[in-house]
Amino acid sequence: MATSGFLLYLLSASSIAILSALYLSSPSSSPSSSFVLSDSLSTDKIWPDLELSWRLVVATVIGFLGSACGTVGGVGGGGIFVPMLTLIIGFDTKSAAAISKCMIMGASSSSVWYNLRVAHPTKDVPIIDHDLALLFQPMLMLGITVGVSLSVVFPYWLITVLIIILFIGTSSRSFFKGIEMWKEETILKKEFAKQSETFVNSRGELLIDVEYDPLIPKEQKTALELMCFNLRWKRTSILLVVWISFLILQVVKNDVAVCSPWYWILFSLQFPVAFAVFGYEARKLYNEHKKRMEAGNLEHICEASIGWTGTHLAFCALCGIVGGTVGGLLGSGGGFVLGPLLLEIGVVPQVASATATFVMMFSSSLSVVEFYLLHRFPIPFALYLTSVSVLAGFWGQFFVRKMIAILRRASLIVFVLSGVIFASAITMGIVGVSKSITMIHNHEFMGFLDFCSSQ
User: Fold this and answer.
1) Mean pLDDT score of the chain
2) Distances in whole angstroms, Cα of residue 302 to Cα of each of 105, 138, 299, 341
3) H/E element holding 337?
4) 87 FRET partner, CA 20 to 30 A, in 5, 13, 122, 195?
5) Helix, strand, or coil here: 331?
């Protein structure tokens, strides 16, 4: 599936779903005729006690595997955590989304800690691409705030349909990408084996030593040196400033009346903050790309194999907002779009995974702080599942990196990413369909809701 065909699929399928929701919101389908307003937006909290039971054991296993695989693929795992917390543990939807953010934050933080002590697979550059992180993080965080607002307006069935459309598309695209990489790796391994055979005669005697010491020995960095090398303090400081700015705006906005003038002023202030940082990084990449092209240097900027033209930068901004919006609707970190997008633009799988989890650490932690101030999740349960995710994120990275080193196949990361997204599509589909059927039986309103009256 080409990129243009993939985008056409997303646009056409999403348009059909939204037009269906608009039809159900028409006067002939208004709540006063045959429907009643849904109580799915109720603020009633359902917080089960943290006690040893089969539900807790199953949730622990699913949480561990979901966090391990999700962070390896760079997608977080919110599409698995939210259904698990609602169906198995019994949390309400809003509390499940909040705890899901805690789990994503824990898993992504431990993955970042692990990746900071890992060298780049091919170059002497940081494994976390801070340029790409600075390009996508502001748009992702802006999209999350937009997605949270849309979750109040959009009907539940429409959110489910849009998420399934996106997840099926991205998982399929990632799977085909993984197959292409697997074939390329197979060819490279065969060529390497042939080259090795040429140094052995018919009697199996080694004719020449193929292991040469380089004229300039490669410098081996310690774990501390790698950590300092992988962490770019200037760019990380900018990311922290964006994080703090969004946090302050969100906290202040939650203390003012919904739809009041001050509410919309604070909501609008998020846009210049996000676009200012994005514009700063986009201009830097554009100028560097222009200079390289004028000099005839075809070396890639960042890890991406695309040219940083105005069209490509605008496309990345749109994808960042879409990824964040999906994260806000679903309760994930936005990695379900960011992970596949980094692979699509030609980023090495190891770097794509490390960069996506680095960005998710900021976006998910912002939501966790906000949910904590709003008392949206029980502390004991959140601490327990976050601890499970921290361990899972670290060991998931460890085992997959070992497998890649042994098998020499980085495509494993792509297959893990595709599998997690596909599993999330199935779990979200099951939850969404069952809840939609219940709403239909109860004659609940299935169209768009008013934002101000639904808060």
Assistant:
1) 79
2) 25, 18, 9, 14
3) helix 335-344
4) 13
5) coil
Residue type, 343: L
Distance CA 206, CA 197 (A): 10
Cα within 13 Å of Cα(410), Cβ side = 15
Q: Where are the alpha helices (DSSP H) in 25-85?
A: 54-73, 78-84
Written as six digits, the tokens of 70 are 């999700």
pTM: 0.82
Question: Is residue 365 within 8 Å of residue 373, measured between CB atoms?
Answer: no
Distance between CA atoms of residues 232 and 196, nearest Å: 39
Q: What angle do CA 138, 251, 148 make, to 5 degrees?
A: 60
What is the rounded distance in angstroms from the CA atom of residue 364 to the CA atom of residue 369?
A: 9
The residue ranges of the chain whose pLDDT is under 70 are 1-7, 9-11, 14, 17, 20-44, 196-220, 298, 330-334, 445-447, 451, 453-455
DSSP state of 165: H
Q: Maximum distance among all alpha carbons in the chain?
A: 89
User: Over the Cα atoms of the chain, what is R_g?
Assistant: 24
For 61-77, b where at least 16 C-beta lie within 10 A, e where not — what string?
A: ebbbbbbbbbbbbbbbb
> Hunting for tokens 């992180």 — which residue is that?
133
**CA 332 to each of CA 227, 286, 322, 335, 424: distance values in angstroms, whole numbers, following the listed order:** 27, 30, 13, 8, 11
Instruction: Tell me how far apart the alpha carbons of residues 76 and 402 are, in angstroms, rounded to a whole number.
Output: 20
The H-or-E segment that residue 387 falls in is: helix 379-407
What type of residue sits at position 151? S
pLDDT digits (tens, 9 = 90+) for 271-304: 998 999 999 989 988 888 888 888 777 677 777 7
Q: Do the beta carbons of residue 335 and residue 360 sit within 8 Å? A: yes
From the list 302, 414, 349, 333, the residue with the least C-alpha distance to 137 is 333
Non-local CB neighbours of 22 within 8 Å, separated by 6+ positions: 447, 448
**In angstroms, rounded to a whole number, what is the distance separating the alpha carbons of residues 146 and 447?**
19
Task: Give the C-alpha separation, 140 to 66, whole Å.
Answer: 22
Rounded CA-CA distance 74/59 in Å is 21
39 CB-contact burial (10 Å; exposed 0-12 / middle 13-18 / buried 19+): exposed
CA pair distance 91, 151, nearest whole angstrom: 18
Rounded to whole angstroms, how far apart are CA atoms 394 and 230?
17
Q: How far is Cα of residue 38 from the mean position of the Cα atoms in its chain? A: 30
For residues 414 and 423, what is the distance between their CA atoms, to the nearest angstrom? Answer: 14
The pLDDT, as a whole number, for residue 387 is 93
Which residues does residue 36 pair with via DSSP β-bridges, in sequence order? 444
Spell out the alpha helix ranges (H) of 91-129.
Answer: 93-115
pLDDT tens for 44-56 read 678 888 888 898 9
